[in-house]
Structures are given as C-alpha cells and as structure tokens.
Amino acid sequence: MAKDFIGYQALTDQALRGVVRDALRRIEKSGLIGAHHFYLTFKTHHEGVDIPDFLKEQYPDEMTIIIQHQYWALKVKDDYFEVTLTFKKLPAPLHIPFAALTAFFDPGVQFGLQFRSEGDAKQQPAPVMVPPPEPEVAQAEEAPPVAAQPKPA
After folding, report:
1. Distance from C-alpha of 32 to C-alpha of 47, rounded to nearest angstrom
2. How many CB atoms lie within 10 A of CB 39?
3. What is the pTM of this model?
C-alpha cells in the first residue's frame, strides 16, 4: 500500500470529533430533547484534561461520563468542552479537550463513534461508527423455573 501523505485517518478523526462538538453545541443551546443523552469516554491524563484529583485516582486511564438529567454549566468551545457533574453528591467541574475523547454514544438513537488516541495511531484503525447493539437475550436466571423432569428408569 502506498504511503498516505495527506493523512486521511487524522482528517477523518478530526471530522468525527466535530460531530461530537456540534451535538454538544446543540444541547448547550437547547438542552437535551427526546431520548437523546450522551456517554462520553475520555483519557483522564490526556493533556488539557482538568478533572478533580479524586476522579483521576479512581479512573487512572479512562473515564466515561453521562450527560443526561443532571448536568450544569455546559460550555462548548472549538477544542474542548466544560461541564459540571456531581460525584459523591459534590459538584465537579470537568474540562475535556475533544482530542481526549475515545468514544461517544447516544443510546437514545443508537449512534456511536470510537476514536483512536494520538498514541494509538499505529495500533488502531481509523475511527468508526459503532453499530447498534444486538437485542438483549434473557439470561438463564431470568427465565421462569422449570419443573424437574423425572429420570428415565
């Protein structure tokens, strides 16, 4: 395969992070509408991430936040977003660069994206849309009890 001097993977990654930025900008202005809510996963030690120390200790590599019912002070800029969420009943302001994101999912409409981190550029493929999950299958313990069958003699 020929060398990619244009850097299509990086361009695709940047464009798809723009989808997340634009989605956050929409809820910044209008709030969440309908079933929309967001799961955002990010690298906690990525340059520019500013979260409370207890969260960095609890999540030393990666953390997923949910923006749904209780979030405050959402501010979306070109390169990062800020939001305040509560942890252990305490408000915690978070500053997260879009470059720190590793995944985005809106389960209300089954839309998701996965991103490669800068250090993983050679190890992982370009970002991809995440397909919707398969319908859940009932677990064995959820099934009604079955009467024991007599053993043949």
Report:
1. 29
2. 15
3. 0.74
